[in-house]
Amino acid sequence: MNTQSQTERSQRIQALAFNYLDQLKERVDQCNLCGGETFVQISHRDRYGYEAGAFTCGRCGLVFLNPRLTAKAYAEFYARVYRPLVSAYHGRTIDARSIQAEQGDYANERAEFAAPYLQSSQHGRSLLDIGGSTGVVARHFVERFGYAGTVLDPSVEELQEAEGHGLATMQGFIETADFSGRKFDLVLLCQTVDHLLDISLTLDKTREYLGEGGFFFVDIVDFRAGYLRNWSVSEATKIDHPYYLTQETMEAYLRRKGFEVLRKGFAADQLHISYLCRLMQPDTGYLPSAEGVERLLREIRAIQNAPRGRAL
C-alpha cells in the first residue's frame, strides 16, 4: 500500500473517533493455554494504529493482547464500532448485509471440507454455530446435511438476518451461554476462536455441548501466515482479536481439551487453517515444544528487523 492510501485509511479510522485508550481493560496474568506467567512483548500497536500490545507466552507460544478490553467493553465494541472500523480499514462498507456473499463462498468451502464425515453420520441432526453471525454458514450446513440449526452471536442485527434464514438464535457469548444440558451433533466455531475471551473455557463448553459421536469444526487465522503475508507483526494484530493462534498452539488446545483431529486443511485464502474433530481422551499435559516456541520468537524478531519484502 502506498503512502497516500495509508494516510487515507488512517483518516477514515480516525474519523470514527473511537478512543481505545479510554476503554475498560483487564490484564492477563496467566496464559490461557498453559497457565504460564512469563510473557514476551512482540508488538506495541495493532493494524488500526491503536496502542494494543501483543505478547507471546514464553512457555507455549500462545499470542494474545495484554491488556485487553473487558467483556463489557467488547460487547459495546461489537455493537457500535466493529463493523464501521473494519469498513474504514478496508475502505468499503462491511455490514450484516454486505458480508453475506463472502460468507456464502466461505460456507461452501467449509462444507466441502467436512462433507466426507458429515454425509456418513447416522447420528441426530442438530447444529450449533458459535459466533454464527448472519447464519449463512449454518444455513448452508442445514440445507446440505439436514441439520436443525441454532446460531449464537452477540450481534442483534446479525441474528435478525439469521432468523430470516429460518434458524433458531440466541444472543450472547459462548462463555456465558446456557443450553440447559442440550447436546448438538455438530458444533461450528467458524472465524470466531480468535475473537474469544477464553478459548480454554469455550472448548470445555464445546465438549459439554457435543453429543457422543458428534463433530466439531474450528478454523483459525494462522498468525504466522498473517505476519508473513504482511511482513509485519503489528499488521497481523487487531483489537478485535484477543488471541492469535498458530498450528502448534491450536493443535495443543485441541489435544489438551480432548479433540481428535480427523481432518486438517489450509483454506483457499492461504490464511485460515481448518480442523474437523471428534471427542477423544484429553491429553492434558501436551504443549508445543520449547524449541518451537524459540523458533517462533526468532522468526518474529527477524520479521521486525528485515527490510520489507526481503525473504528470511
Please give a quick description of this structure:
With 312 residues, this protein is an alpha/beta fold. It has 10 helices and 13 strands.
Please give a handful of descriptors for the protein shown.
38% helix; 312 residues; 4-stranded antiparallel β-sheet; globular
Describe the structure in your own words.
The protein has 312 residues and is α/β, with parallel strands linked by helices. It has a single domain, classed as Vaccinia Virus protein VP39 (Rossmann fold, 3-Layer(aba) Sandwich). The protein is 38% helix and 21% strand. It contains ten helices and 13 strands. The strands form three sheets. The protein has a seven-stranded mixed β-sheet, sandwiched between helices. Helix 5 links the parallel strand 6 and strand 7. Helix 1 runs antiparallel to helix 3 and helix 4 runs parallel beside helix 5. The longest helix is centred in the middle third of the chain and has 20 residues. It is globular.
